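B., you asked whether I could sanity-check this one before it goes into the benchmark set. Here's the sequence:
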Amino acid sequence: MSAEATNPEARPEARPELRRRGRTRLDLRRLGRAALLGPTSRDRLPDAIGHVAEAHRAHHPDADLSLLCRAYVLAESSHRGQMRKSGEPYITHPLAVTLILAELGAETTTLTASLLHDTVEDTEVTLDQVRAEFGDEVCFIVDGVTKVEKIDYGAAAEPETFRKMLVATGNDVRVMSIKLADRLHNMRTLGVMRPEKQARIAKVTRDVLIPLAERLGVQALKTELEDLVFAILHPEEYEYTRALIAAHAGERDPLPAIADSVKTVLRDAGIAAEVQVRPRHFVSVHRIARGRGELRGSDFGRILVLVGENADCYAVLGELHTCFTPVVSEFKDFIAAPKFNLYQSLHTAVATPAGYVAEVIVRTRQMHRVAEAGVVALGNPYAHTAAETAAPAEAGSPAAAADCDEERVDPTRPGWLSRLLDWQQSAPDPDTFWSVLRAELAQDREITVFRADGGAPGTISLPAGASCIDAAYAQYGEAAHGCIGARVNGRLTSLASRLSDGDTVQLLLAQDASSGPAADWLEHARTPAARIAISSWLQAHPDSVKPTTAPARAPLSVVGARGGGGNAVADLPDATVRLAGCCTPVPPDAVAGFVVRGGAVTVHRIHCAAVAQMRALGRTSVAVHWRATADCRVTLLAESFGRPHLLADLTEAIARQGVEVVSATVEPPVEQRVRHTYTLQLPDATGLPALMRAMRDVPGVYDVRRA
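And here's what the prediction gave me:
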């Protein structure tokens, strides 16, 4: 914010204009002088916000400008005497940020908060004052964009500031709208900063702010930010691209003639449409040049066709493909399948008789507004739901919106934002949060998969390339540690399998609560939530990793002898103690003993079904306790996908733990799954968890549990 203010005249050629044609260019120095004079009278707007009022009324003709006037007076008086590094009065910064948002069509509340967005951070104004003067809604937005104190957070101040803004954005997306406009103006005026500071700010903009602008659909801000970052971080490539564009400006441009032909075709077909030539921005030209090599005249722009209704878009497409030669591979329908950032349009490319290939975008005027301004074009997305809930919270406030179930399904709260808000709670370390945030935002595509169990919500949004592991953690959270397999579109598959858009997923969970993820799950997990949860579990269970050195292999035994009492001791002198085969208790299980025929005491786990039966039959109960150390016998069930040599690998894993196999049974495969039953003699009961983990680590095994 204030630290990023510099020369407004730097790199004018790298600043694509967002202003409407015919509007006077904004003179920040003139506005600065007007700002110092303050409002001229009570019955008119201050001269300094005349441009903001004009832009705002262009989108909202009935807007009440008195709130803007009051916000400006407070901002100007509180910032009075502060100067930007370029020498202008500081008030020119919030004015410029507010003008950017006004030209995108932001509603009055957003513009009010934008004028005040630096007051709490850089002046004596407090949040309580903002709340008292402008209400809870404006106060919440201003607080959301206010940086945390560096004196409190030190080097973690920047990550924690972004964490705070993202959490606030989850409740009110207008917080991030103001932050993006704030960064755009600071990037426009970055020229007098030291080169190393310019590079640092540009990298954060590239890694965090530009992906956020893309995901929120604010293309007008995103494209200009891309060009400004491109000029700072890649000056040589930027200059080369600028030279290409300058050379093209002196040549004959074929796109206007192609646009005229499109107009004629649509007029003859009776389709009312507006046809424009849209020049590509610097980064777009650079990408085209890298992909195609030598550029032709039609590569420097695209043709935009604006119509009234959705059906008209497809009518335009039909005429274009009938009257021109379509390039089939370039056709994309983002109306039937919108992008995850609200974007809708038809994309195609047509070849002309002269040999030029022109890209064409077809959309309605409403789609165009959303494509340019994204969530800013939605105004206040919480106003209607807040009014319907009829509070105690004030209508339109974030508190009222948060209490309404509809807010969670609002398009401004997409899957990527909900995922981000969920996993950031599991990343208390600022460095982890910062690195994972950048990795998450680098995922530029999403897929949607469907739950086969019919649970709510019925769909799961995931980044492209996500696996069944990611779907498990998205659906079950930490309970996914016990995931043992999945069915994708009805077919059994491994957890490492990648998912595609539209897949139906059924996840299988182990019944054993001690189950945990394997270390190699990290290789297949793409979402931060899954990676953080798996890493945390592995750190908390270091013994879950297979040892590098193993004890000598014990001889296999197939003797089916009945086990004795092991280390169980009954409070009955001279009684023979036996461990029940139905539940195979081992230390430290809670157990109960019962006297059976011959005076022997049979020991069961306390939750065994036989315990209730024994008590119903009136059998005598005997107190039983465990000795400190002793061997024990246990029965384990292992379930796996069928494959060759599985039995050999499982018995090898058991033997390497120094455990004796008393008996083993393998059932015939059912739907590619195989169940193994092992009765095992352990030298020490405390080794049971490690044994079960070693068996789960065998490829193909997806569950191991006590019988």
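One thing to flag: The chain has 27 helices and 21 strands. Otherwise nothing jumped out at me.
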